[in-house]
Write a structure and sequence with these properties.
It is a single chain. It is built from 23 helices and 18 strands. By secondary structure, it is α/β, with parallel strands linked by helices. The chain folds into three domains: 169 residues, P-loop containing nucleotide triphosphate hydrolases (Rossmann fold), CATH 3.40.50.300; 171 residues, Rossmann fold; 127 residues, Dehydroquinate synthase-like - alpha domain (Dehydroquinate synthase-like, alpha domain). The strands form five sheets. A seven-stranded mixed sheet has the order 8-9-16-13-12-10-11, sandwiched between helices. Helix 2 packs across helix 4.
């Protein structure tokens, strides 16, 4: 259960911060007991080191000397303790501690900001006594410290847990649930940094990601995910937001100018301002649409993506691409506009049909082929289980951690490319492996083929083309066929003639003038730009894909 850094150092599973009286020690002990882990309290450690109580040390040596000891104790413990660790209320205000917590979080650690009801926390803090920082009017001092510390707590934490009205056991269970998440941080040139959270219960982060600025939230979702949108709406309303429910057509039928125009009319009629927000909850088409609405309404408002399909979790919801389709092609109208956060709640996969889950594996496999071979190894090892996915039993099955790891690894691949190249000038184009042919398939099938399935066939085409142009060995091509087939993904297509496919590939976003541009593969983990390939090879690759059908 411990967190191990890249350098091999043992780290705490979680570090708890928050105001005096928030319950850091009590809930930390409860959490540790539930998980069978050791617990440490920084204040108790400090008292053992200085040989006296903290109030006594404050009186004799002053706050500055206390903070020096506190810093030493905390930084030592962050490097060599593998349990649950609670810090004193003022500890995160020390710059060296902030830096230590930031390094801990980058190594995969969870810094929990425990938010209690202020009146409850003040009462507990007064009752406990022995708090030098509350000398004088304790309540007034508490509120003044809260206003000073809250922005720092928010900045250094990557998990926020509100405990108002909860029993200690309920609060501890919530802490466990919210720390049992994968977090992928996305940043880079031109990107407002944000986190992708992957785990059971990730939707609970909605209020924290939206923040206190918005009054109104447009919840854009599709009908098939009504159960999950009901949950999101309840979370938002409990947090005090005014929620406007907007239901859009499912899949690509929702990504049209007509649907977007209807939403703009709704937002205008209901008085949405630049300080309000959008939440997109659904599959990739829905999150693409919601992002496009957020990017265009009043030139940009805050938005959060809540993907409910495997495909959306690993692809559409992350990376800042937003857009709608036109009769001339897919995603030809859109913008690059990054979300405030992405919440990939594994609970939403429980309502996913088997075939829609499997199509998401197409994008997962793509990330393995272009960068992370471990993804392919996991897919190979669990191919039969993944192919037999059953949403009703998913959360209680051994498949849950496998899927969680696949999502996190795939998102990390995407984050790597996006962080270096937000607007698809070079490196990010590698994410389009299999997409040039795949997008043509989608359009020629009038979007009856789902995106992940089209990408699977597109990868077969790209592998064959790479082989025909002398870049990729035949063994890797055959491996591509075999793995995708074992996962239940299509490996062939015969839905149109070559000239129709070629015309659409010339319209692809990567094309330049009359020059065809593909993403090819030299070997697993090494994609390359395949520009203006031999015309006969382009045709022959198509014939190979068609002959398999």
């Amino acid at each position: 259960m411990s967190t191990t850094a890249h350098d091999g150092a043992v780290r705490p599973l979680a570090v708890i911060i928050g105001m005096m009286g928030a319950g850091k020690t009590r809930l930390g002990k409860e959490m540790a007991q539930m998980m069978g882990l050791p617990f440490r309290d920084a204040d108790i450690q400090i008292e053992r080191r200085i040989g006296m109580s903290i109030p006594q040390y404050f009186a004799q040596q002053g706050e500055s000397a206390f903070r020096d000891v506190e810093r030493e104790v905390i930084l030592e413990t962050l490097e060599g303790f593998d349990g649950i660790y609670a810090l004193g209320g003022g500890a995160p205000m020390t710059p060296a501690v902030q830096q230590g917590l930031a390094a801990y979080a980058r190594a995969g650690g969870k810094v929990i900001y425990l938010q209690a009801d202020p009146h409850e926390a003040m009462t507990r803090a007064r009752r406990a006594g022995g708090r030098p920082m509350l000398d004088g009017d304790a309540d007034a001092r508490w509120m003044a410290l809260y206003e000073q510390r809250d922005p720092t707590y928010r900045a250094v934490s990557n998990v926020v847990v509100r405990t108002h009205g909860m029993t200690p056991k309920t609060a501890a269970r919530k802490m466990i649930e919210m720390t049992d998440e994968g977090i992928v941080h996305v940043d880079g040139s031109g990107i407002e940094p944000y986190d992708v959270r992957i785990g059971e219960g990730a939707l609970n982060h909605l209020p924290d990601v939206l923040g206190e600025g918005p009054v109104r939230v447009a919840l854009i979702h599709t009908q098939p995910v009504q159960r999950h949108s009901d949950r999101a709406r309840a979370i938002l309303r409990k947090a005090g937001y005014e929620v406007n429910d907007i239901v859009v057509p499912d899949a690509e039928a929702g990504k049209t100018a007509q649907v977007a125009n209807g939403i703009w009319e709704r937002l205008g009629n209901e008085g949405f301002t630049r300080s309000d927000a959008i939440v997109g909850l659904g599959g990739g088409a829905c999150t693409d649409l919601a992002g496009f609405i957020a990017a265009t309404w009043m030139r940009g408002v805050r938005y959060v993506n809540c993907p409910t399909s495997l495909l959306a979790m690993v692809d559409a919801s992350t990376g800042g691409k937003t857009g709608i389709n036109t009769p001339q092609g897919k995603n030809l109208v859109g913008s690059f506009y990054t979300p405030a956060g992405v919440l990939a709640d594994l609970r939403t996969l429980t309502s996913l049909p088997n075939d829609i889950f499997i199509e998401g594996l197409g994008e997962v496999a793509k990330s393995g082929f272009i960068r992370d071979p471990e993804i392919l190894a996991i897919l190979e090892e669990h191919a039969s289980e993944l192919r037999a996915f059953d949403g009703e039993t998913f959360l209680d099955s051994s498949l849950k951690p496998v899927v969680a790891e696949l999502i996190e690894r795939t998102v990390r691949v995407k984050a790597h490319h996006v962080s270096a190249d937000l607007k698809e000038a070079g490196l990010r184009e590698f994410l389009n492996y299999g997409h040039t042919f795949g997008h043509a398939v989608e359009q020629l099938e009038h979007f009856r083929w789902r995106h992940g399935n089209a990408v699977a066939v597109g990868m077969i085409y790209a592998a064959e083309l790479s082989n025909l142009t002398g870049h990729l060995d035949r063994q890797t091509v055959e491996y591509t066929y075999d793995l995708l087939d074992r996962l239940g993904l299509p490996t062939s297509w015969n839905g149109a003639d070559f000239d129709a496919v070629l015309a659409l590939m010339h319209r692809d976003k990567k094309a330049r003038g009359n020059t065809l541009r593909f993403v090819g593969l030299e070997k697993i983990g090494k994609p390359f730009h395949l520009n203006d390939p031999d015309a006969q090879a382009v045709r022959e690759a198509f014939e190979r894909v068609r002959q398999q059908a």
